[in-house]
Amino acid sequence: MSESARVVAVHVSPQHSFSKPDVTEIELHEGRGVVGDAHYGVTVKHRSRVRRDPSQPNLRQVHLMHAELFDELAAAGHHVEPGQLGENVTTRGVPLLELPVGTRLTIGDAVVTVTGLRNPCQQINDFQDGLMKRLVFTDDDGEVVRLAGVMGIVSRSGSVRPGDAIDVELPAEPHFPLSPV
């Protein structure tokens, strides 16, 4: 992994708001998520998933998004800042979307295990018209491409701050590609 793999910004919101404000530090709690965030807990907190089955395990404790996406969106005419798409950790230098399920990311003192892709919702178009088609689309091979970051669970508690290095540990083979969680 690149020596420049690092945290750009961290975000938390106690409300189920679309965007999350920047903070100087977040605290990750093993098995629960980002302390003080609306998605904190052992069971699922995403409102539509709670309606379906509130006892589901929370595989979406931490949302990570790559800052390189914001660069691509800017080139397409969309101005998006870290935290505005609801992520908890904005990264740079980590190919998040290429990681297999079970990848362990050591970030600051904490470890996050990647569980899958974020499946973005209509709120993205409410935020900026036309943005959804930049984040979810069908490629030339007919495959659905999702670019809105990855989700993970906290495997070791700790603090995460902007500037923290990110170490990537791939799981044992066989590797399984990410799918929406």
TrEMBL record:
It comes from Gryllotalpicola daejeonensis. InterPro entries: MoCF_Sase_C (IPR005302), MOSC_domain (IPR052716), Pyrv_Knase-like_insert_dom_sf (IPR011037). SUPFAM superfamilies: PK beta-barrel domain-like. The lineage of its organism: Bacteria, Bacillati, Actinomycetota, Actinomycetes, Micrococcales. PANTHER family: METAL-SULFUR CLUSTER BIOSYNTHESIS PROTEINS YUAD-RELATED, MOSC DOMAIN-CONTAINING PROTEIN. Residues 21-169 form the MOSC domain. This is MOSC domain-containing protein.
